[in-house]
Structure to design on (219 residues):
């Protein structure tokens, strides 16, 4: 049983002009594929773990055999992070932020613009390679994380809701060394509906109960 590269959930040119077809082919067909191949290679000696979802392996790196911890963190993280990343993108300017998500961002960061500013800063200022993240913990608290390489909030007990890839391979074909320009353009291809859905799945009880007032329980 091997991990497989999932196809993009849209055409290679769907994100243009924010990301070119060429950049998407390189990123998905070469870079993501390499993480999948290296993950499968690392799992060759561990048939008992080959059927475990990679996200589950990443949630508990300490429980893995010692020789697997680094390859799962890097190659497994690379596979899981890219799969999630593709699912959170869409055609430029094609979704609007659902009100439910906007309220949660206001609650956590003051207002939506403040969230965007802080998230952009995390993405632009990350030294070297990695991702900026919006994640939620078990108590429903939202936070922005800046993680190196292929590390994921899953390994820190959090559920990732949104992420931007700031490895050079993610933007160099279109933006060369201009990372800030990439981040500014990237906001146009965020699939806000997908982000809101992930938040709802991460905290189903809270989102269905939070609007109830004590009086609502009176019969
Ligand atoms: Mn990447």
């Amino acid at each position: 049983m091997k991990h497989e590269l999932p196809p993009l959930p849209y055409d290679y040119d769907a994100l243009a002009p924010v990301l070119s077809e060429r950049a998407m082919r390189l990123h998905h067909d070469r870079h993501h594929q390499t993480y999948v191949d290296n993950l499968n290679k690392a799992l060759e000696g561990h048939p008992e773990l080959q059927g475990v979802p990679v996200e589950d392996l990443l949630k508990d790196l300490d429980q893995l055999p010692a020789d697997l911890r680094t390859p799962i963190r890097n190659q497994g993280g690379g596979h899981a992070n890219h799969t999630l990343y593709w699912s959170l993108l869409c055609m430029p300017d094609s979704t609007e932020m659902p009100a439910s998500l906007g309220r949660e961002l206001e609650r956590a960061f003051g207002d939506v613009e403040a969230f965007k500013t802080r998230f952009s800063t995390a993405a632009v200022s990350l030294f070297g390679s990695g991702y900026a993240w919006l994640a939620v913990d078990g108590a429903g608290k939202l936070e922005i994380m800046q993680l190196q390489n292929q590390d994921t909030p899953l390994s820190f007990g959090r559920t990732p809701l949104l992420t931007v890839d700031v490895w050079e391979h993610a933007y160099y074909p279109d933006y060369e060394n201009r990372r800030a320009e990439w981040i500014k353009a990237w906001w146009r291809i965020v699939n806000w509906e997908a982000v809101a859905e992930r938040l709802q799945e991460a905290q189903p009880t809270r989102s269905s109960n939070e609007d109830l007032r004590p009086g609502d329980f009176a019969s």
Q: What stands out?
A: Confidence is low (pLDDT under 50) at residues 214-219.
